[in-house]
Every structure is written in C-alpha cells, then in structure tokens.
Automatic annotation (TrEMBL):
PANTHER family: CADHERIN-87A, PROTOCADHERIN ALPHA-4. InterPro entries: Cadherin-like_dom, Cadherin-like_sf, Cadherin_CS, Cadherin_N, Protocadherin/Cadherin-CA. It comes from Alligator mississippiensis (American alligator). Residues 27-133, 134-242, 243-325 form the Cadherin domain. Residues 1-25 form the signal peptide. Keywords: Calcium, Cell adhesion, Cell membrane, Glycoprotein, Membrane, Repeat, Signal, Transmembrane, Transmembrane helix. The keyword DNA-binding does not apply. Its main location: membrane. PROSITE patterns: CADHERIN_1, CADHERIN_2. This is Protocadherin alpha-7-like. GO terms for cellular component: plasma membrane.
C-alpha cells in the first residue's frame, strides 16, 4: 500500500482538510461581513464559499449551508455560487433597537468532512427614521404678565436610528417673542426650553403658533415637527375707556322721574371678568346732584330722579366712573347743561 501522493486527487483533499483545520484551530474568529439594513433581496453580503476555500466544483457535494439560531432566515447561501446574499428584509431598528452595534451570528456547515464555521454579519444603520416628537401639537398657556426671560420646558424628539443618523438639532420658526434654548446634558441627552424674550400682549396677539423642527444628522437628513400653540392668558392691564371724553346733554326742566338723560358707554380691551364694567358717579359728586340723577351700574343709563328747576340750577357737571373690578378707572366729565327756559 502506498501513501497518497500530493498532487493527486486524494492529496489535494488531504491538503485542504489540513488547511481548514489549521484555520479553525488558530481561532481566527468568525468570518466577518457587513451589509446595510434594508438592502434589496439578492444583495451580495459576502463570497462565502470562496472565503472558506471551497471550489465551485465541490459546492454541491459538500452542501454548504446556514444554520440559524433563533429561526431568522433573512440571509441565504446561493447553491450555484456559494455567495451569501440578502433573502428578506433586514431592519436594524427591529433587530437591535438602540444598540450601537448590530450583528447577526450565523453558523455555516459543510459536509465531507463535517465542519462548522462562524460568520458574523454586521447590519449597518441607514437613516430611515425621521425624528418624532411625542405629540403633534404642544399647548402652552402663558399669562401676558410673565416677564421676559421666563422659561417653559419642551419635550425633545426621538429618532430610532443610531449615531449621527439620530443626532438631532432643533430650530424654532421665527418669532419676536420666543427663542429656543437647547442644553446638552452630561449624559449627552438634550433638554429644551422655550424662552420668552419680549413681553406678551394678549390684546395684540392672543395666540401664537410656532413650528419646532428636529433635524437628524443623516444624509439626506430627515425632519420631524411639532406645532407649539401658545395661548396668552389675560391679566387686567387695561382700564375701561369711555366712547367720549365729554357727553353734553340739553334738558328741559320739570322732566318726569325716570326720563333717560343719556347712556354712557365704556369699553375694555381685556377679556372675561377683566372687561366687566360697573358705572357709577364719582365719589366727589355732590349730594344734590346724586339726588337729582341716578345711574344704572350695569348699563350706564343716567336718568332723572329728582326735580329739575332751571331757576335753582341751570347746569350740572357730573363725573362718572367706569370700573373694571378694581384695575382701573376712566371718568369723563359729564356736563349736563340745562337750556334756557
Ligand atoms: Ca434618523
Ligand atoms: Ca436605521
Ligand atoms: Ca380691564
Ligand atoms: Ca389684558
């Protein structure tokens, strides 16, 4: 019996077996490939047979095949070429979430002789997720009395990608009243506040609509937005204003009690209780005038209440107040001139 000679068919087989075992014994680690997530079916991941030292002619006999742990079948080995290709969708976010590194660990088997190889396929992130805010509309209610420099916390956006594809920058639509203050915390997370830079005025602009945009660092970049709806709450910062500074009325004497002399009217730019007006005679109006005229607190109607006698008094000057629950007053002079008899 003669030993197989190197160069003959048996010799080649022996040599290859030795080389494969040597590679395995050296503990050279798994074969490593990488492929971007969401690559189309059929995309080449690696020339597996070639990298394992198998020749095209022996692929069928040695049955190169994948063994999956966990039942995934998103990669396959092509029988004809021994190439490792994408078979179905690889979604990095689904496979690995926010992990910095995402890899599939496969076992590759060949027969004759039976060998097991380890293969690691790194799934690379692509920028396929836009930043998302927790809500589409963020409502804030800010009293118009808040001072410039006041701050209001906002929620940041999230991005399902990793690395630069999830690195967000923020921008606020132009506003003369508000600016954005983004702070990077020690743990690299971000927090964000809306800063008031100019005193609000509900009477001028009762509601502000701003758009906050988050942009990731991917190429191309993706954006997400949230609408900020800021309702300015009223404070009682406007006094009632009469429609005229002076009301002039000419009356005949001996008018019946209850006769309407005039209806004064004041308005207030505030809202709700801050614009509710009460009319009254000024506290300095003399008693004899108060005995002659009466005023309706709610309507501002001034009516005759006592006797008008031209000979006794031919002109009256009455100061009337409009009061909006203590905030302010307006008190026009109300000359009531009696005509010649
Ligand atoms: Ca992204
Ligand atoms: Ca991604
Ligand atoms: Ca008011
Ligand atoms: Ca106001």
């Amino acid at each position: 019996m003669s030993a197989p000679r190197l160069g003959g068919p048996a010799g080649r087989q022996l040599l290859r077996l030795v080389l494969l075992q040597a590679a395995w014994a050296a503990g050279s680690g798994p074969l490593q490939y990488s492929v971007p997530e969401e690559a189309k079916a059929g995309t080449l991941v690696g020339r597996l047979a070639q990298d394992l030292g198998l020749e095209a002619g022996e692929l069928a006999a040695r049955r190169l095949r994948l063994v999956w742990k966990g039942g995934r079948d998103s990669l396959e080995v092509k029988a004809e070429s021994g190439a490792l290709v994408v078979q179905s969708r690889l979604d990095r976010e689904e496979l690995c979430g926010q992990s910095a590194r995402c890899a599939l660990h496969l076992e590759v088997l060949v027969d004759k002789p039976l060998r097991v190889f380890h293969v690691e396929v790194e799934i690379q992130d692509i920028n396929d997720n836009a930043p998302v805010f927790p809500i589409k509309e963020h409502h804030l209610r800010i009293p118009e009395s808040r001072l410039p420099g006041s701050r209001f916390p906002l929620e940041v956006a999230s991005d399902a990608d990793i690395g630069i594809n999830a690195l967000l920058s923020y921008k606020l639509s132009p506003s003369e009243y508000f600016s954005l203050d983004v702070v990077t915390n020690e743990d690299q997370s971000k927090s964000m506040e809306l800063a008031l830079k100019k005193q609000l005025d509900r009477e001028e602009t009762p509601v502000h609509h701003l758009l906050l945009t988050a942009t990731d660092g991917g190429k191309p970049e993706l954006t997400g937005t949230v609408e900020l709806v800021i309702t300015v709450l009223d404070v009682n910062d406007n006094a009632p204003v009469f429609s005229q500074a002076v009301y002039r009325v000419h009356l005949r004497e001996n008018l019946e009690n209850g006769t309407l002399v005039i209806k004064v009217n004041a308005t207030d730019e505030d809202e709700g209780i801050n614009k509710e007006i009460q009319y009254s005679f000024h506290s300095l109006v003399p008693e004899n005038i108060k005995a002659t005229f009466g005023i309706d607190q709610g309507t501002g109607e001034v009516r005759v209440k006592g006797k008008l006698d031209y000979e006794e008094m031919n002109s009256y000057e009455i100061r009337i107040e409009a009061n909006d629950n203590e905030s302010g007053k307006d008190d026009p002079i109300f000359p009531c001139v009696m005509p010649e008899a």
